[in-house]
Specification:
Layout (H helix, E strand, L loop, with lengths): L5 E4 L1 H4 L2 H12 L4 E3 L2 H14 L5 H14 L9 H4 L10 H10 L3 E3 L8 H4 L5 E3 L1 H11 L1 H14 L7 H10 L3 H7 L7
Parallel strand pairs: 1-2, 1-3, 3-4
C-alpha cells in the first residue's frame, strides 16, 4: 500500500469484539494507523457493560490495556481544547472529531455517518466512513497482509476454535458484509 490511512475509531466500532480485534490486527500489519482516545474507550466499555451486565469491568479494562499496548501510538491526547469550537448534530460526538483533528486523521470510522456530516468534516480534511468499504479497499490494496491479519485473528480465537466461515459470519454480523464476501475468495489463506 502506498498510503496507510490514519483513522479515529469511533466507540460504536470498538464496541464489537470482532471489529476491535480486526482493527488491532490491521494496525499491527501496517495497513491502518488506528487511533482512539480514553474517552472512546470509556464509551465503548460503558455500553458493553450496560448491554452485557454479566461481564466484569476488569475484563474490559484488560482488553483496553491490551489494545493500547498492541497498537503503537494509538492513544490521542490533547484534543479537549478543540471540542467547544466544533459543531456536530450530536454535541457528544465533538470529542471524536477533535481527536481526529489533533491526530491528523483523515478518517473517522463509524457506523453513525449521519452524526458526522460531510459538509462539516470536509473543510477540516476529515471524512467519516463506514468501516466495511474501507476494509474492502484495504483488502484489495494488500491482499496478503489483510488475509494474514484475518488468519491471525482466527487463530487467536481458541475458546472455542473458530472456523473460517464462522469468523466471516461474525464479521458480517458486525457490519462487514462486503469485506466478508471478498474474503471468501481467499478462504484457503485464512
Amino acid at each position: 500500500m502506498d498510503i496507510v490511512p490514519t483513522a479515529i475509531i469511533d466507540a460504536c466500532i470498538l464496541y464489537s469484539a470482532p471489529l476491535r480485534d480486526l482493527i488491532v490486527r490491521l494496525a499491527q500489519a501496517g495497513l491502518l494507523n488506528a487511533r482512539w482516545t480514553d474517552d472512546l474507550h470509556d464509551e465503548w466499555m460503558r455500553n458493553v457493560l450496560k448491554n452485557h451486565p454479566q461481564l466484569a469491568r476488569d475484563r474490559l479494562e484488560r482488553t483496553r490495556s491490551l489494545m493500547d499496548r498492541a497498537v503503537r501510538d494509538c492513544l490521542v491526547t490533547g484534543y479537549s481544547d478543540l471540542v467547544d469550537s466544533l459543531t456536530l448534530p450530536d454535541e457528544d460526538d465533538r470529542h471524536v472529531l477533535a481527536a481526529a483533528i489533533r491526530a491528523g486523521a483523515g478518517l473517522i470510522l463509524t457506523f453513525n455517518l449521519s452524526d458526522f456530516p460531510a459538509e462539516t468534516l470536509a473543510p477540516l480534511g476529515v471524512f467519516a466512513r463506514h468501516p466495511d468499504p474501507v476494509f474492502a479497499e484495504l483488502l484489495d490494496a494488500a491482499v496478503d497482509e489483510f488475509c494474514e491479519a484475518v488468519r491471525l485473528q482466527r487463530q487467536g480465537l481458541r475458546n472455542p476454535p473458530m472456523t473460517v466461515e464462522s469468523l466471516l459470519a461474525r464479521l458480517e454480523t458486525a457490519g462487514l458484509t462486503q469485506t466478508a464476501e471478498r474474503l471468501r475468495q481467499y478462504t484457503d489463506r485464512l
